[in-house]
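Continuing the series of single-chain predictions for the mutant panel. This is the parent chain; the variants come on the following pages.
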Amino acid sequence: MEIGVSSFAETTADPVTGEVMSHAQRLQEVVEEVVVADQVGLDVYGLGEHHRPDYAASAPAVVLAAAAARTQRIRLTSAVTVLSSDDPVRVFQDFATLDGLSGGRAEIIAGRGSFIESFPLFGQDLSDYDELFAENLELLLAVRASERVTWRGGHRPAIHDRGVYPRPVQDPLPVWIGVGGNPQSVVRAGTLGLPLAIAIIGGMPEQFGPLADLYRRAGEQAGHDPATLRVATHSHGFVADTTEQAVELQFPSYQHAMNVIGRDRGWHHYSRTSYEAGRSRRGALAVGSPEDVAEKILWQHQHLGIDRYMLHVSTGTMPHAEVLRAIELLGTKVAPIVRERLGE
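Parent structure:
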């Protein structure tokens, strides 16, 4: 099983000082995180696309390209690309370029996104939310499948026998579908035979087991080899040398970040009680010692049969040195425990 890290390049206010770091500083920190993840043997680093002041990565492929020049083995993916408001041809070109620069390590996780700021920014109508994603995914896969493309849709200008370059090292360039729990999206991924990435940031991970089963059934009914129907999960968490240290370091920034988002979405105040429920054995948060986090990963593997696990280690602003230490522990302590228990 692959184990990796994801980030949104957060620049939320420090929960203690109230200071907000610059976007430039945070982007440089992200590149350092990828370098450390590569050095400690992690399999993948994912960077999300956002268009808000409290996130620095509106162009993940650019940031990952900077990291590609300083790494050797780790796979580099968006997490996610907001495909509904992006141009699919440009997305392909960006990640094909990243693929060439990295020697064949690029991936795309395409999703609808959890925020809507990109729609008005790029002139898209939210009433076309579902239709835009389906159409743009169709075009992205057409460009991936053929060097020259003829295509017509309802929102983007048609393409007639045009070449799209550069071509990636990998053939095909990996495209995953990222979902938050929408069954229709899960079925679409299975029917197309694309790997599935599920964001599990609340509730109990085993509740997502039926979605993983639905995905595999849809894929097999569409005639795809079950071995190619891969499932990844993404969860918030943090690793430190001891459980107490992990909780002390993460909770203030996590609470602050969740309440900032919660004010936008009408959520209830995120309390210490909510946090402790998430940290419980069956909760979605993977926070604690290496042994604690390994158990959380194995729990998801047991209930969802996952092939990849991505730990979002910096929800909110945290001391950079501690984030790097968490990534180090994920690679040197957590991953070996998981792989030994799985017999890998």
